[in-house]
Amino acid sequence: MKIISTGRTLFSPENYERKKKEKKRKVLAWSAGVLAVFIALVIISRLERLQIREVAAEGAKVVPEEEIARVVKETLSDRYLWLVPWTNAAIYPRRAVRENLMKEFPRISSVSLSLDGMKRLAVSVSERDPYALYCPELARGELVESVDKCFFLDKSGFIFDEAPDFSGVVYFIYKKDAPIKNPKGSQFLLLENFSPLAQFVEGLSKFGFEPVTLTIKDRDVELVTRNGTLILFNAYGDLTFLYSNLEAFLKNPAIEMDKLSELDLRIENKIFWKLFGNN
């Protein structure tokens, strides 16, 4: 009798063929079972009672709620594997909804999603508050009575929306000598750089200054106050230490703040100043 070896056990030709057929039947049965389960899950996922049919937006003050609902519905119009609808209440893509809303509307800072039953998706949003302006076309060191073509940025330095034209200095103005391409949705500076810079600017008001505009050129900062004083410093230096030095300098009774035309703080532990009328 001819013997066939599988590498582990010796079989006769008849036993070997029988084992192959049994194995093939098991694979086919397992595959059919998996396919049946998959088809059943697809059918269940498409049941009408499981589909989100209504989107309700709330919390927006500036972004139209109907526009929020539109973006959410457009996001949910997609499908998993071209078969399973994203409108399924159990498996709808929460992350994609949040990301698409915040990409479409940079003014939105956070998105909360919740289901009211199976058919209604409640979308609650929070919007960024204007903190200052980014004005790419403002002339360097310019004092302004009106602003146009500017953008709002929040306290983190994120530029989130175009600002309307208005007269008077309503917000502090930031600018870079090298304009930001497509500023809406961009960061003016990284948060770890913008936060201490904003705190330094705010702190100047405690000395009696009224900061109006700030321009960054490479590492140097040119800040202009309402009375025309120009303050120069390094944007990426130790601004806490710099603030302490400036505070000590201004406490000198010989310094008349209203006569200061320029303060240069760019050299460590030194302050150079000029008075109005002096070159």
UniProtKB/TrEMBL annotation:
Residue stretches spanning the membrane: 27-47
Alphabetically ordered keywords of this record: Membrane, Transmembrane, Transmembrane helix
Name assigned to this protein: POTRA domain-containing protein
Species the sequence originates in: Candidatus Zambryskibacteria bacterium RIFCSPHIGHO2_01_FULL_46_25
